[in-house]
Amino acid sequence: MRTTKNTVLASALATLLGMSGAVSPVVAGAGAVGESALRETSDDGDEWLSYGRTLAEQRFSPLEQINETTVSNLGLAWSIDLDNSRGLEATPLYHDGVLYTSLSWSRVMAVDAESGRILWSFDPEVDRSKGRHACCDAVNRGVALWGNKVYVGTLDGRLIALDAENGKAVWSQQTTDNSKPYTITAAPRIVKGMVMIGNGGADLGVRGYFSAYDAETGEMRWRFYTVPADPSQPVEHPELAEAAKTWSEKTDWSLGGGGTAWDAMAYDPQLDLMYVGTGNGSPWNREIRSPGGGDNLFLSSILAIRPDTGRLAWHYQVNPGDTWDFTATQQITLAELEIDGKPRKVLMQAPKNGFFYVLDRQTGELISAEKFGKVTWAERIDMQTGRPVEVPGARYEMEAVTMWPSPFGAHNWHPMSYSPLTGLVYIPYQEVPGIYSNEGKSFVAKHGFNTGSGSSEITELPRDFTSGALVAWDPVRQKAAWRVEYPHHWNGGTLATAGNLVFQGTAAGHFKAFSADAGKELWSFDAQTGVIAGPMTYRHDGEQYVALMAGWGGSAALFGGDAVVATGVRNVSRMLVFKLDGTASLPTLGAPPQSDRTPQPVVVADKELKAGSDLYAAYCAVCHGTGVVGGGVLPDLRYSSDAVRQAWNAIVLDGAYRSKGMAAFGDSLSEEQAQQILDYVRQREYQTWTEAMKTKADQD
Question: Would you place residue 456 in the very low, low, confident or very high pLDDT band (cuts 50, 70, 90)?
Fold first, then answer.
């Protein structure tokens, strides 16, 4: 624990080591956040009151003290080293001199926005074994503010309201069935005095929904299920009766259905419509999920909801019958564009599938949809039907296919931003191929990752096959205005400002500023860790600051592979805050630990190694890296200690490391299977070592 302000070192240390109680009992001057404050912040950039700054989710700030001329003088004002070893995805909020943000495992802290002094912290004490159900790291994307409360969704499915003055819990609601693999990683949104929250878990087999809770009392107002349930059960709301017609009569409802609303939400107060993006099916492969076909509403869809009642106004399905994990949970942004000479109130989204959508947000009419990157699974979007024109074989019914994008998406959760001054959308684009094969009748549901698309066959992710870019997209002309190439995927979210700037952190550990109109790099800062979160900006006592949560993690970092190793970063979790003429600096990083063990060849039958490889892919790869190649967040098992190897069954089957987030898998794996995984890990260690020795010999 370290801050650049010596006077707050002791307070910060006590807070973050415990993360459970208040250090400062009162946040001075914290006023209530309500409808008027949200309206005022639309034009006044002093405060950042919601995840996307406003409920239109543009992530554009009218502040311009830091601009294309002055940004070269931007420096670190202060930083906080955090007791946090998993990814940081939150966008901090700012109100009345205080920054509110979340860390991994759903922890929350309030920080003095000028000095970096930690005012209070809160730990919901999530059972770390719940990390088994977090497909994409034990992350949290932020909090919400309303009245005098701070709201957070927790990894174990709770929605908690905290007192903004001291961080004490006011009320808590369990929003999910914790016997099932539901999780919450999204920032809540507040609409008309209600807290809106969804959940994740479709990859592990749940039924999606999102809910509205009274912000004052915590009482649930309504719930919208995104997919039907077993027809023998009561229908919760009328939309599901129509949705059921788009599912097969042979659907195995025990697989959950999916459709989780795990991130995207926006709100238009004039139309009084809330927009929600929904996710993939459970499992991904429709042939298994819904044999015989069907569009499978409301998977991979944008839903327009009337917030007072929770009823559906309209929907648009981005991927009918999705079978690739092409979610529509990516950011939804509201704007007014001039199209064909007329102003249109539109909704924009750049979802995983690689097409940029512009919809009329009142009616759901598709205005345009074009590829914003490499897309090979579909030729185009049919403007008459709104459906993609898929290429033959894209659904991999008969043979395996390699196509773009992959389940990582052409754009994932990383926030994009829109500048009404340039008319451009700034997208964190990534180019990663996907390999799909049909498990078909060989599919067996397991207490792990369930895709039905041959994910167990993926044992490597070479660096030569992945890349990223910052794409400035013109949503009217539906083409790129400019583009900055990156050698790596999984780069961070963006922020646009009236200073003609776009800020973005990178997977390689840099925080950069570009000119918003032309894409010229104007400033860069070495963050010492991969950056995935979206930055924000605020004005305090007349001075503009830029704040960022920096900490490598998330699904791509955990999934690892050679492409992630190539970034050269590891998790170093910090809160970074910048201002003009800032003079603080970061400490020098120590070298990562190295293994000095000489690996030995593994003498077991090939079929045993193949079994270990398949089991590793199903249960381990999502956290410890494909092909046992870690991505700088969790331990790379090739280099696990002798002590870990000796306690393998106690860790893997019995949960000896449960407190560290390593759950027990004794309910899913036998001792023989655990040994098969260990043999595969040891074989991969030996392969890596022999390859390194050969390279060294060649160089010598």
Answer: low
Angle at 400 between CA 396 and CA 406, to 5 degrees: 80
pLDDT tens-place string over residues 205-218: 999 999 999 999 99
Distance CA 273, CA 125 (A): 35
Q: What is the pLDDT of residues 275-294, one digit of tens each?
A: 999 999 999 999 999 999 99
Measured distance CA(62)–CA(538) in Å, rounded:
10
Check whether the bond before 405 is cis (ω within 30° of 0).
Answer: yes
- pLDDT tens, position by position, 223-252: 999 999 998 889 999 999 999 999 999 999
Between CA 100 and CA 90 the distance in angstroms is: 10
Residue 236 neighbours by CB distance under 10 Å: 13
**7 pLDDT tier (thresholds 50, 70, 90):** very low
| CA-to-CA separations, 686 to 103, 616, 652, in angstroms, rounded | 36, 17, 21
pLDDT top residue among 681 and 454: 681
Q: Which of 281, 277, 249 is nearest to 261 (CA)?
A: 277
Percentage of the chain surpassing pLDDT 70? Answer: 95
Phi-psi region of 341 (alpha: psi -120 to 50; beta: other; left: phi over 0): left
- What is the amino acid identity at position 446? K
Q: Give CA–CA dist 189/334, Å, rounded.
A: 15
CA distance 403 to 323: 13
Distance CA 182, CA 179 (A): 8
User: Tokens standing for 377?
Assistant: 């699974």
Give the start-to-end residue ranges of the domains of the chain. Answer: 6-28+45-230+244-284+293-376+395-580, 606-699
Cβ atoms of 664 and 674 within 8 Å: the answer is: no
pLDDT, residue 632, reads 86
Name the one residue in this structure whose structure tokens are 């046992």.
628
Q: Using CA atoms, how far apart are residues 287 and 422, in angstroms rounded to an integer?
A: 44
Which residues are bridge partners to 158 per DSSP? 174
Is 163 designated active site?
Answer: no
273-277/467-474 β-pairing: unpaired
Comparing CA positions, the residue from 411, 431, 423 lying closest to residue 477 is 423
What secondary structure does DSSP assign to 139-165, as a single string? -----EEEBTEEEEE-TTSEEEEEETT
Query: Greater confidence, 685 or 517?
Result: 517
For 354-417, the DSSP string reads SEEEEEETTT--EEEEEESS---SEEEE-TTT--EEEPTTTT-SSS-EEESS-TT-SS-SSPPE
Q: Return d(Cα 19, Cα 27) in angstroms, integer.
A: 17
CATH class, domain 606-699, is: mainly alpha
The mean predicted confidence, pLDDT, of the chain is: 92
Give the position of tokens 């994009």.
416
DSSP helix/strand/coil, 282: strand
Backbone angles phi, psi at 257, to 5 degrees: 95, -40
* The dihedral formed by the CA atoms of 503, 507, 510 and 513, expressed in degrees to the nearest 10: -20
Check: pTM over 0.85? Answer yes or no: yes
Tell me 475's DSSP state: T
Q: Which of 156, 263, 325, 517 is catalytic?
A: 325
From the candidate CATH numbers 3.20.20.70, 1.10.1040.50, 3.90.1560.10, 2.140.10.10, the one assigned to the domain spanning 6-28+45-230+244-284+293-376+395-580: 2.140.10.10
